[in-house]
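Incident log, support desk, overnight shift.

02:14 A customer reports that sequence design results differ from what the structure should imply. Their input is reproduced verbatim below. On-call engineer (initials T.W.) acknowledged and began investigating.
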């Protein structure tokens, strides 16, 4: 294990039925190939030393003796190799023959017998093999390369309570399945669903290797189906129909992330206490976990935008679901307080645009008159023509009530009252504008018997990029669970579906507008001068940091390692600079999150002090910042 990752493979070499020498040669050749790719643990198909389709030959002493000698060859190979193998073979034990998995490691071997023997439809294994005589309370968990592993064989996965369920409760983080599943219409998709669900329920990685090319096609067809799932998602697979004598899938498994999810999900350990009576752990004396900044995470894709799916169809599905969650949340709030009016400030930026779109969607669902949505644009010292015009066009196209209230005179008078020099563009200059806007919204809500709809997003809450008692406050924070990198896609979702051409053009221009609070006067050309990402850092980086800090509790060192892999467009120095700012702000701005308005949670990361995140406002960031400083070259 390096950097908390273990590289595993599921492989299906070409075989010949009952030709043990050939099969062992192919297994070893495939193992050599995988070891060149720095694979640490590899699983091969069920009965791969003999092939699965030997039929009554399994009761042949010649085949059984040859299989035993073939396993000895693989054990001998392992004495000079660091990679651990899991291979399948028939074995005589006492007065029975068992379908077995051999876990081969550094010249030693541990044997796991198949627990559930299928004897229905095209399967009649009970003709040859006895089921494991172990009690269901006996749980085998092995250690390999710093990880704990569990092993089951084919049908074991298809039963109501697979052995891997108890193996995971006993500590196994990676589950391996040696299989010989034949190909039938629709079976592959069903198989994938089983693997994905088992990896999710067990909060584990699950590697599945199935018999492939070379098995008998007398009555059935087998193709090399190799899958690797991690915690509910397929992360590697090979095309089973590909014309290749050596099928394999390789993945880097994040053990640290799995461990975090297990202790975070407290019911996982509760289930272990309830279900486990006895556990047998075999120690293979694996090397200690190490950290290497130069480790090449070659077989794992790190999404630079973890809140945004990489597939267009998945993005569309995600946006549709989020919009429905936001709409349902706002609809419930309005009905609960018998309120039929909303007040929302419209700046011509992304966040207020999304809030207004959700408001309109909610009123449509509740069959309320959209004139009850009072949209107010409040131009100030930094408002540009682009954002002002977009705000007006958007409100007009959505048929909401429109108000325009300039804050310039009120803020200028306020500066005079408190003795502030308006030429000094400091925090007082900026925050006075934000608080004046919030006062207008709140007072208008009082006049109209309405509530103020907040527009701030999750990323701003993480960084504390909001004026306390200004845009920080509302009666319902509709975007509180939406990270900045996802807001663009949600607005785009609306832009692509509207039949109003003006609305669509306006939304696309808002998407392209630089993110800014517009609290500093524009430049000489009337363009936005104050760009948020120039001041606080790129949101793509901050959302990445936020995800891995909250979702997995990773250290700065590990987040930095992952960020370097994900962001080829940023230098290491840039990543470290903004990583330090992220942690500094995340800690010292907690007081703003401790008193947040209500708002709907939409994803796995949430900062609500009443929901997922409880943190003291005076916690120290020293350890996190020290680790970041130690990473500097």
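02:41 Re-run completed on a clean worker. Output:
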């Amino acid at each position: 294990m390096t950097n908390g990752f273990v590289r595993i493979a599921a492989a299906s070499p070409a075989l010949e039925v009952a030709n043990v020498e050939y099969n062992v040669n192919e297994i070893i050749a495939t193992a050599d190939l995988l070891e060149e790719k720095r694979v640490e643990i590899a699983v091969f198909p069920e009965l791969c030393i003999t092939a699965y389709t030997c039929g009554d030959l399994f009761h042949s002493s010649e085949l059984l003796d040859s299989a035993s000698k073939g396993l000895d060859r693989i054990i001998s190979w392992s004495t000079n190799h660091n990679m651990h193998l899991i291979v399948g073979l028939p074995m005589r034990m006492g007065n029975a023959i068992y379908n077995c998995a051999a876990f081969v490691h550094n010249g030693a071997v541990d044997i796991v017998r198949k627990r559930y023997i299928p004897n229905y439809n095209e399967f009649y294994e009970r003709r040859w093999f006895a089921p494991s005589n172990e009690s269901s309370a006996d749980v085998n968990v092995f250690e390999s390369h710093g990880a704990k592993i569990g092993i089951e064989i084919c049908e074991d996965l298809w039963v109501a309570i697979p052995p891997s369920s108890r193996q995971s409760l006993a500590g196994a983080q990676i589950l391996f399945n040696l299989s010989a599943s034949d190909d039938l219409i629709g079976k592959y998709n069903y198989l994938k669903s089983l693997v994905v669900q088992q990896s999710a329920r067990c909060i584990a990685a699950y590697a599945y290797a199935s018999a492939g090319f070379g098995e008998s096609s007398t009555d059935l067809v087998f193709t090399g189906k190799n899958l690797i799932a991690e915690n509910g998602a397929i992360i590697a697979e090979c095309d089973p129909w590909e014309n290749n004598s050596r099928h394999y899938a390789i993945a880097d498994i994040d053990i640290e992330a799995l461990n975090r999810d297990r202790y975070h999900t407290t019911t996982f350990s509760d289930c272990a206490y309830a279900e486990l009576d006895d556990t047998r752990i075999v120690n293979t004396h694996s090397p200690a976990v190490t950290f290497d900044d130069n480790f090449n995470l070659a077989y794992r894709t790190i999404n630079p935008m973890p809140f945004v799916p990489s597939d267009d169809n998945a993005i569309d599905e995600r946006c549709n679901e989020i919009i429905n969650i936001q709409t349902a949340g706002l609809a419930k709030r309005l009905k609960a307080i018998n309120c039929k009016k909303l007040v929302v400030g419209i700046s011509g930026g992304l966040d207020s645009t999304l809030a207004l779109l959700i408001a309109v969607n909610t009123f449509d669902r509740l069959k309320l008159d959209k004139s009850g949505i009072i949209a107010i644009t409040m131009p100030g010292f930094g408002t540009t023509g682009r954002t002002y015009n977009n705000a007006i066009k958007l409100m007009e196209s959505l048929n909401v009530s429109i108000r325009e209230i300039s804050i310039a005179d009120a803020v200028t008078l306020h500066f005079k009252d408190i003795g502030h020099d308006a030429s000094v563009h400091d925090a007082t200059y900026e925050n006075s504008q934000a608080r004046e806007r919030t006062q207008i919204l709140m007072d208008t809500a009082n006049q109209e018997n309405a509530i103020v709809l907040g527009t701030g997003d999750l990323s701003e809450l993480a960084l504390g990029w909001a004026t306390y008692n200004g845009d920080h406050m509302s009666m319902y924070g509709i975007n509180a669970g939406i990270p900045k990198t996802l807001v663009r896609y949600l607005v785009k979702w609306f832009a692509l579906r509207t039949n109003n051409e003006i609305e669509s053009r306006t939304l696309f221009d808002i998407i392209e507008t630089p993110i800014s609070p517009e609290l500093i006067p524009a430049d000489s050309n009337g363009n936005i001068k104050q760009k948020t990402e120039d001041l606080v850092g790129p949101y793509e980086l901050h959302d990445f940091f936020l995800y891995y800090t909250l979702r997995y509790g990773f250290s700065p060192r590990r987040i930095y390692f992952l960020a370097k892999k994900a962001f080829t467009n940023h230098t290491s120095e840039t990543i470290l600079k903004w990583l330090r700012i992220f942690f500094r702000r995340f800690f010292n701005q907690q007081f703003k999150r401790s008193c947040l308005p209500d708002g709907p949670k939409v994803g796995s990361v949430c900062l609500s002090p009443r929901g997922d995140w409880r943190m003291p406002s005076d916690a120290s960031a020293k350890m996190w910042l020290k680790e970041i400083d130690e990473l500097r070259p």
